[in-house]
Design a protein that fits this description.
The structure is a single chain. The chain is mainly alpha-helical and 516 residues long. It folds into two domains: 195 residues, Fumarase/aspartase (N-terminal domain) (Fumarase C, Chain B, domain 1, Orthogonal Bundle), CATH 1.10.275; 267 residues, Fumarase/aspartase (Central domain) (Fumarase C, Chain A, domain 2), CATH 1.20.200. The chain is 54% helix and 5% strand. It is built from 20 helices and nine strands. A three-stranded antiparallel beta sheet has the order 4-6-7. A hairpin with a 5-residue loop joins strand 6 and strand 7. The two termini are 15 Å apart. 52% of the residues are buried.
Length: 516
């Protein structure tokens, strides 16, 4: 992340994507602003006034969901909120990654800070203190339908804030929540009217994963431009299709950016200059080379749409019922995850297609009939050595999985709560699939990086472009160059770590300038 933050102050206004990433990934501490405290105090006063009203108010003096017709007497309402949190903390399966949970807690805190949920300022302070102390509630993967918010994941967080359930500390050690809060000097939440709803009725898990995905996919699309440039160069392709005046005839912003990256990465290549002669009879390259800016560009434009949705959501109040500035308390459907579920699914499609094109470029290197003079499978002694043959198998297996993960989760719906919640978004599932897909794309691009760099080295004594040469040098710090067959898995894992650390993009940018 380019921006460095030492502290995030949560106020009534929206957080920025950079602030969410900083808290989620870098452990940046959090503080509630005075304006947020004042807004919450005003909202809480409205809820307190409703608590003594004989008329029923959802979540204040009634049950929840299909049980909303049950009137709850005043002496049972504290138990009502605690029971809601305990019963809804029903997740199962593996633990959700700490960065996702931290993002989820921060985003729920941001909604509380608007004052529109009626939560107590003390509750928000506990959430902020947990984040600052590095205490992360244990949230299980399965349990959210993406409607009425991410109920089970948020319930696990609320349970921990109340001193129940489990948390992991900043070192990843598991503790009972009550003991961890006490050790950190944090007062557990004592829930009052409506607070159970305020802590559970959010799309924060979906939004947190979307924001983290946007951060990661931005870097991976730049990496895809880097690996595509390496492949175009080493496969003796042409950069003519990337010319500014050519791509400007179809001026999608993402395409223009991707083509600009490719031009700068390939500028000054002796490899490409070597076949700009009358003897070269090829007039155009295969689609996986020639159309890289169009595919990578469309991916960028889709990502821009997803970012716009995420930024609108950062300014939203997601709760039910919600307190309006004029004093009304209204039930609503803002907790439905459709706006997020759709773009999460859309990005999974993008990831699968970018990976698919990368795999097709890799495959061209390994086929002597299409690699324009490179040895079969880039092997040192073909026949004795298999070279990088099976690296493409690994890549193909990953791409196949990514295609399955691209099946949209948001088209599914299973009714719940005795048919009260009869249409749900499955946006949480879409987000989980996207996280897996991004990990797969990272591995796919790492394979292309390894293969393309070996292919480029086999073009010696011709020299690559300064930009691609810098990327090749950087990879050679982690993965050795051509030679007889050796154990390949550690090299592919090292290349994956290299991509995950964003080294190819950084190495290229040091020579050609910041990539778009």
């Amino acid at each position: 992340m380019e921006e460095t933050l030492d502290e995030v102050v949560v106020g009534p206004g929206p957080l920025s994507p950079a602030q969410v990433v900083a808290v989620a990934r870098d452990g940046v501490p959090v503080r509630l602003s005075a304006e947020a405290e004042a807004a919450m105090a005003r909202g809480r006063a409205v809820v307190d006034s409703l608590a003594s009203d004989p008329a029923p108010h959802y979540g204040v003096s009634t049950g929840f969901g299909a049980l909303a017709t049950r009137h709850i007497p005043a002496e049972r309402r504290a138990q009502l909120q605690a029971s809601l949190v305990r019963s809804h903390a029903a997740g199962t399966g593996p633990e959700v990654e700490p960065e996702v949970v931290r993002a989820l807690v921060l985003l729920r805190l941001a909604t509380l800070a608007t004052g529109a949920t009626g939560a107590q300022p003390a509750t928000a302070r506990t959430y902020a203190a947990m984040l600052s102390a590095g205490l992360t509630p244990v949230v299980r993967e399965h349990g959210s339908l993406g409607c009425s918010g991410d109920l089970a994941p948020l319930a696990h967080c609320a349970l921990a804030a109340a001193g129940e359930g489990e948390v992991r500390d900043a070192d990843g050690v598991l503790h009972p929540a009550g003991e961890a809060l006490a050790a950190a000097g944090i007062a557990p939440v004592v829930l009052r009217e409506k607070e159970g709803l305020a802590l559970l009725n959010g799309t924060d898990g979906m939004l947190g994963m979307l924001l983290l995905a946007c951060e990661d996919l931005t870097a991976l699309l730049r990496t895809a431009d880097v690996t595509a440039a390496l492949s175009v160069e080493a496969l003796l392709g042409s950069d003519a299709a990337f010319a500014a005046d050519v791509v400007a005839m179809r001026p999608h912003p993402g395409t223009l950016d991707s083509a600009d990256n490719l031009r700068r990465l390939l500028a000054g290549s002796a490899v490409m200059a070597s076949h700009r002669t009358p003897e070269c009879t090829r007039v155009q390259d295969a689609y996986s080379l020639r159309c890289a800016p169009q595919v990578h560009g469309a991916a960028r434009d889709t990502l821009a749409h997803a970012r716009a949705v995420a930024e609108r959501e950062l300014g939203a109040v997601v709760d039910n019922p919600v307190l309006l500035p004029d004093g009304r308390v209204e039930s609503n459907g803002s907790f439905h995850g459709a706006p997020l579920g759709y773009v999460l699914d859309f990005l999974a499609i993008v990831v699968a297609d970018v990976a698919s094109m990368s795999e097709r470029r890799t495959d061209r290197f390994l086929d002597a009939a299409r690699s324009h003079g490179l040895p079969p499978f880039l092997a040192d002694d073909p026949g004795v050595d298999s070279g990088l043959m099976i690296a493409q198998y690994t890549q193909a297996a990953l791409v196949s999985e990514l295609k399955r993960l691209a099946a949209p989760a948001s088209v599914d719906s299973i009714p719940s709560s005795a048919m009260q919640e009869d249409h749900v978004s499955m946006g949480w599932s879409a987000a989980r699939d996207l996280r897996r897909a991004l990990d797969g794309l990272t591995q796919v691009l790492a394979v292309e990086l390894v293969v393309a760099c070996r292919g480029l080295e086999l073009r010696a004594p011709l020299q690559p472009a300064p930009g691609t040469a810098a990327v090749l040098r950087g990879l050679r710090e982690a993965v050795p160059g051509p030679g007889p067959d050796r154990w390949l898995s550690p090299e592919l894992l090292a290349a994956t770590d290299h991509v995950r650390a964003r080294r190819p993009v950084a190495d290229a940018a040091a020579v050609v300038g910041t990539l778009r």
